[in-house]
Design goal:
By secondary structure, the chain is α+β, with helices and mostly antiparallel strands. The chain has helices at 18-25, 31-34, 113-117, 119-147; strands at 5-14, 38-45, 48-53, 61-71, 76-83, 85-96, 99-110.
Amino acid sequence: MGRNHYRFRAAWQLAAPPARVFAVLERAETYPEWWHQVRRLDRTGEDSAVLRIRSVLPYELSVTLRTSRRDRAAGILEIGMSGDMDGWARWTIRPDGTGAVALFEQDVEVNRRLLRMLAVPGRPFFVVNHKLMMRSGLRGLRALLERGLDEE
């Protein structure tokens, strides 16, 4: 794995049925409403969009997304990514007791020049930055599901 290559994984325990979680996660254009680090998502086509994200560190990433798999029966949502990061990200939603677990996996190569230059000294900060972003997303999604705002 090169110094600009990252693999992330997070498992979110959610008190909602898998179909409901899938329905929320497949509506990426609503992410900015409940996931504050997702600053903006602009659709560019039926299966494509431009995403802008920023967590704690003072930089914003812009990524073009293209849906590569949307399989409700298997509980899988997967996208290809290009721009400041190239690679893929995938949600896999499975039943877990009376709720669901949403597994997030991401495999990317960072292209943004500043982040590439800071790859070695900055890596621990980039990893923590991602963890904080994921923690915030989990909190936002749990709150949305608990309040039933996804069903309006």
